[in-house]
Amino acid sequence: MAPQRFHEQFDQIQRSMPDVPLAMGPDDAAEFLYEKGVVLARDGEEARLVEDTVRTHFTEAPDLTPDYVRRASPQTNRSGITRIQVGDPGQGDPAVMHALRALREHEGRAGRRLVSRNHVVSIAVNSCPGDEPVPAPLTQGTNPAPAEAGYDQDSAVGVLVIDNGLTHDYTAVPLLAHVQGDLHGTETDSQGNLQQYIGHGTFIAGLVAAVAPNTDVTVLGTLNDAGAILESEFGEKLFEAVDRNGWPDVISLSAGTSNGRTDGLLGVDAFMRELRTQRTLLVAAAGNNASATPFWPAAYASLPDYENVVLSVGALRGDGEHGACFSNHGPWVKAYAPGERLTSALTGFDAPVPYVYQHSTYDACRYGFTYQCTCQSPRHTGVLSEANAATKPDQVMFEGFAHWSGTSFATPVVAGMIAAHMVAHKETDPRAARQQLLAANTELAEVRGAHVPALRPHTWRPAPVVPRSVGA
């Protein structure tokens, strides 16, 4: 049986949120995850309207009772969102759908969305991120290689990485000398194996530092060890991040969710409106679902009010000429960068650390591509994919560096290129640097038949792409 990657990740994320009952949506399409029995609304009159409207529809939803309509989080917060429980999560999840349908007429009159599912914002979307990390020898260095530039505290560009923190020994990596931030905390399981997604933030920091050495990079542990957070909490956490660190030049965000909408995430609406008034540029990953469905917050780049505020980034495959099989795509993705089998720091050099693969590779590309993509190569057997307990998962040892793939990693490459442009051109406005970089870029790549802007750092080394029939 082929691996069921989305379901495997659903189980993994559910274990990381044991007190939050989750569901897949919309309906059976399994495009995103959300909290059962809960909807979101803006504080005040809109929240009260949602509560009152859902109550009037109880006669149409016999599985509910009025007792289930209550504010699960009554306090007002800076994100301006109220979390409203509308049903019993233990009885399936028809209540959320009833609530969404009940408010459609009101939304039409209001001219904007009034209610939303409480989505899971995650780095682990469908392709985990595009694969799992593969050990890389230290002697080969990073890819992109570190640019030849010095560090100057007075002119360094500030890059804030919203992710899942840093490995405890990251300071042993010279490339990360000017990186600071939160540590992961628990990094290994009871057997001493590195947990899935640990090192994600460290890997990203290494990519930013390689492309743009004159940066002050801060990595926050906003997301849990599985790289996930509820939408109802995410907006508030974004505010906390900038309150704690100040508004940086660039925010690099390698997480998000689709929601079946074209108007953004209700839970981050207040933060995005505040971001618009600042000078900060948000560089956000387009996601790894091989889908044209908007992925938020990256897809804000396609909304008129945010086109200069957000830059959405898709991933190119190893040769840099075409889109990676897993990368989301569409007109809302504004730039693409290398994102397949990049090389960066996963851990420091304290000691080798074992890792047990969680997901098995496929016999062929799950998205129908004909090159040897990360769906199938390098081959390994993962513990979450195998129902047969007798099947032994593959284990590897990491000594510091790794190859890893995903729009998660194309994103910090672009964040680094913008920072490097700011330094080279003495540009103090990151949004102006974004415009200048894209305007000066003449490189293109082919993604799903479209020619798109391709941002390739000059220290990045392309790799030959092998057809699936060779060595398969």
Characterization of this structure:
Helix 7 links the parallel strand 11 (250-253) and strand 12 (281-285). A 7-stranded parallel sheet has the order 8-9-7-11-12-13-14, sandwiched between helices. Strands 1, 2, 3, 4, 5 and 10 form a 6-stranded antiparallel sheet that branches. Strands 6-18-15 form a 3-stranded antiparallel sheet, covered by helices on one side. The protein has helices at 5-16, 45-56, 94-102, 104-110, 200-211, 231-245, 269-277, 407-424, 430-440; strands spanning 22-25, 32-42, 70-73, 81-85, 116-122, 134-136, 157-162, 179-181, 215-220, 228-230, 250-253, 281-285, 310-316, 335-338, 342-345, 353-356, 395-398, 401-404, 444-447, 450-453. It has 9 helices and 20 strands. The protein has 472 residues and is an alpha/beta fold. The relative contact order is 0.15. Helix content is 22%, strand content 20%.
Number of E-type strands: 20
Low-confidence stretches: none
- Outline, from the CA principal axes? globular
Number of helices: 9
Share of residues in strands: 15-25%
> How many strands, which pairing sense, and closed or not: the largest β-sheet?
7 strands, parallel
Label the structural class. alpha/beta
- How are the strands ordered across the major sheet? 8-9-7-11-12-13-14
Radius of gyration over all CA atoms, rounded: 22 Å
Output the helix-strand order.
HEEHEEHHEEEEHEEHEHEEEEEEEHHEE
Amount of helix: 10-25%
| Average pLDDT rating | 91
Q: How far apart are the termini?
A: 19 Å
